[in-house]
Amino acid sequence: AAGVIQSPRHLIKEKRETATLKCYPIPRHDTVYWYQQGPGQDPQFLISFYEKMQSDKGSIPDRFSAQQFSDYHSELNMSSLELGDSALYFCASSLNTDTQYFGPGTRLTVL
Amino acid sequence: EDQVTQSPEALRLQEGESSSLNCSYTVSGLRGLFWYRQDPGKGPEFLFTLYSAGEEKEKERLKATLTKKESFLHITAPKPEDSATYLCAVQAANTGNQFYFGTGTSLTVIP
């Protein structure tokens, strides 16, 4: 069965640079979620989109923005990167806001 | 304030030694409780969804149960390949689609 696809899998950036993470949800899923997971921590909810509209907002910094496109893929844009932004970023998708299925994650390292 | 607490934080079992992981929650209007397995550096892998007290679900050596205040993940005769971090997440009626994760239980099964 098709799973959530994330790209890139690894990303290395310098401080103050910009990064864009992409997420391709499971086909026919209508909701996309973004999470940040620091070392040894649980996933922290950032933002979600339902049918291409922002539906919930969590602890997403103002430096970050996200959107969902007409083909349902989503992008997380991160600007003015800080060392503390280094983490695993997960995208998840669901149908009708039910069970969330997670992608493999993007490991972002900020130097 | 909504809260999800998992215990123990870490658990070491001998192969074949059955045990249970606990997830306690305090949310208003539970919509669903979700169990995930996460291997290091990978995305959470969906295991079970429970919606109402008294519900039980099984998959191979795992069985999840739900009461009004907590959920248990029972592991019967574990094998080394069951070693992972097990995450519990809840979705509440008054907080939209957000998942609130516990900090997880790190399970190590020793051959």
Q: How large is the count of helical segments of chain A?
A: 0
Instruction: Note poorly predicted spans of chain B.
Output: none
Report the strand count of chain B: 11
Roughly how many Å apart are the termini of chain B? 41 Å
Give the CA-CA distance, first to last residue of chain A: 37 Å
Tell me the strand percentage band of chain A: over 45%
Radius of gyration of chain A (CA) equals 13 Å
Query: So what's the overall shape of chain A?
Result: globular
N-to-C series of helices and strands of chain A: EEEEEEEEEEE
Number of strands of chain A: 11
Question: Based on helices, strands and strand pairing, what is the structural class of chain A?
Answer: mainly beta
Order of helices and strands of chain B: EEEEEEEEEEE
Query: Mind describing the biggest β-sheet of chain B?
Result: 6 strands, mixed
Biggest sheet record of chain A: 7 strands, mixed
Question: Which features would summarize this protein structure in a list?
Answer:
heterodimer, A: 111 residues, mainly beta, 7-stranded mixed β-sheet, 4-stranded antiparallel β-sheet, 0% helix, globular, B: 111 residues, 5-stranded antiparallel β-sheet
Account of the protein in words:
The complex is a heterodimer of chains A (111) and B (111). Chain A is built from no helices and eleven strands. In chain A, a hairpin with a 5-residue loop joins strand 7 (64-68) and strand 8. Chain A has strands spanning 5-7, 10-13, 19-24, 31-37, 44-50, 53-57, 64-68, 74-78, 87-94, 101-102, 106-110. The termini of chain A are far apart. The model of chain A has no long low-confidence stretch (mean pLDDT 94). Chain B has 111 residues and is mainly beta. Chain B is 0% helix and 59% strand. Chain B has strands spanning 3-7, 10-14, 19-26, 30-38, 45-50, 56-59, 62-66, 70-75, 84-92, 100-101, 105-110. The radius of gyration of chain B is 13 Å and the shape is globular. The N and C termini of chain B lie far apart (41 Å). The model of chain B has no long low-confidence stretch (mean pLDDT 93). The chains are: A mainly beta (111), B mainly beta (111). Chains A and B meet through strand 5, strand 9 and strand 10 of A and strand 4, strand 5, strand 9 and strand 10 of B.
